[in-house]
Structure formats: structure tokens, C-alpha cells
């Protein structure tokens, strides 16, 4: 946090004050675990972010996010070109592998932070992609593939609207989730990128996403047309969500804030924009350890849901999926029968 503001004396003073305040919270909880009511990991993560904001550290990972976004956007055109030369089945598997591989870029995981000191963002992404060996720990890809592409010559209807809950900045969103969003757009599905309202760790925010999409759209007509159709202005979302522009030749790509400032998400407490966007959604994609595993792994939705994450915490791997660190989760759930 201090480094994000250049290490100036005022930042050091506030950093020391934050350290004392947050340490005092943790010390009290060690002695009296029920002091703040019933707590889970998501609450502790949110407590940390609130403490940082209390001492005027509004985005401690700002410079890191900018650097990783630029590095990822530089190689995005080559990735899209590679994807466009694949058949549908191969491309869909490569896209899901890409989301899982790119989810390794998580500054909330000590194991992953250690990796960053050993290579560049692109080297780490390629290493992660090369290790995407199936079967994954939760391995519903084939079911999802059949829903997307059909079988025995029968083509299924594309989804009407997909909510994509994105996670980290850099390779995670640029090389993982944006290409997946592009594939859904190509199939005629409206796509809503759902991101944090406030910064937390290196998670991408709804305010940052339009600029990232704008840069990506310079290299892709599909993204450009969809971004134009969707507006990509957070304050205009309520106007565009309930109906497409009559003269638009593309389904829209939109951005909505989730009302949250934590690496996790409680879907009982979301923004009014997200609630409006969810009304017509028939596919939810939750990506990342915080949103797909910590807080919603066992959540059941009224529409189809896909949960994607790389497990980067040994304790979570053992308790939740009975696996190991860097195991992958691809969990697909069909819509319940009406």
C-alpha cells in the first residue's frame, strides 16, 4: 500500500497506522473469535479492504494492475488469431483452459506471488497453459461442451444473456475471460461483465474494465461492435440492459458493477445494476477462487451456471475439493427443471 503511493512520508505514516489498526482487529479475534459476530474468510478479506480505505489507501495494487494489463493486451491479438484458426470444439476447450490458466495471476495467493518473482507475466501464463492437463479436479467440461455445441448434429439455442463475474486484472481478464466473452458474443449471446465496485487486491474494477475492453477492441471487430452496442459506460447500464438499440448489428457487451469491494461476493447483497442485468440472464459464469469457490461453490442458481477456478490455497484444496494446490475446477450446473 505504501509503495503504491511512492513510499512518501505521509504514505508511510498511514501505512503504519493501518498496520496497527488491522493487527489490533486480528489480535482481538484471536482472543475472542465471536467478537464481530459470525465470520468467514470473505468477512476477513472485506475487513482488510475497509481498513485500507479507512487510512486512505484506495487502490494499493493500481500500478501492478496497469502494468499487467498492458503486458497482457500486447499479446492478446496473437491469442485471438490462434483461436480463430481452431474448429469450434477445440476452440471451446482452449478457451476454458485459458480461463483456468490465467486465473493463476492472483496477488491474494502467497504461492502465486512467489511465482511472479521467477518470470514475466507471459512466461507464467504459458507455463500455466502447458500444465492444463485433464481430467481436472471438478471436470464438467464435456457436459458444458454438449450444451454449447450440441451433439448428433443437433444445434442448441445460444444463451440469451450471460453474466460473467470476472476476477483479477492482467492476464486473468484479458487473456482468460475476454476471449470467452468474445466466443459467447460470436454465438449471439449478450454478455455482461460483472466486476467489483471498489478495488480489492488486484481484482479488476468496473471502472477499469471499459478502458481494457476499448484497448482489446482495437484488435477485434467482434469486441468492437459489441462494445459499441453495449455502450460500456457504467452509469448508462440501466438504459441499455432492458433493450438493444434498434439499429445495432451486434449483441451488446456491457459492464456492470457488483456493489462489492472484496475478493469474494455475497450474491444476497449486490448493486441495483447487477440485479437489473440478472433478470433476463440464462447463464452465470463465476470465475476465480473467491467468487466461484470460497463463497459460491455450493450455490444453486435458477439458470445454468459454470464455475471456473484454479485452486491456489492448500487448505482450501484439501477442505473443499479434496485435492491439491493448482488443481482446476470446471463445474457446470444445468438450469433446474421448472
Automatic annotation (TrEMBL):
<feature type="domain" description="Damage-control phosphatase ARMT1-like metal-binding">
    <location>
        <begin position="19"/>
        <end position="320"/>
    </location>
</feature>
<keyword id="KW-0479">Metal-binding</keyword>
<protein>
    <recommendedName>
        <fullName>Damage-control phosphatase ARMT1-like metal-binding domain-containing protein</fullName>
    </recommendedName>
</protein>
<keyword id="KW-0464">Manganese</keyword>
<dbReference type="InterPro" id="IPR036075">
    <property type="entry name" value="ARMT-1-like_metal-bd_sf"/>
</dbReference>
<keyword id="KW-0378">Hydrolase</keyword>
<keyword id="KW-0533">Nickel</keyword>
<dbReference type="Pfam" id="PF01937">
    <property type="entry name" value="ARMT1-like_dom"/>
</dbReference>
<dbReference type="InterPro" id="IPR035073">
    <property type="entry name" value="At2g17340_3_helix_bundle"/>
</dbReference>
<dbReference type="InterPro" id="IPR002791">
    <property type="entry name" value="ARMT1-like_metal-bd"/>
</dbReference>
<dbReference type="InterPro" id="IPR004567">
    <property type="entry name" value="Type_II_PanK"/>
</dbReference>
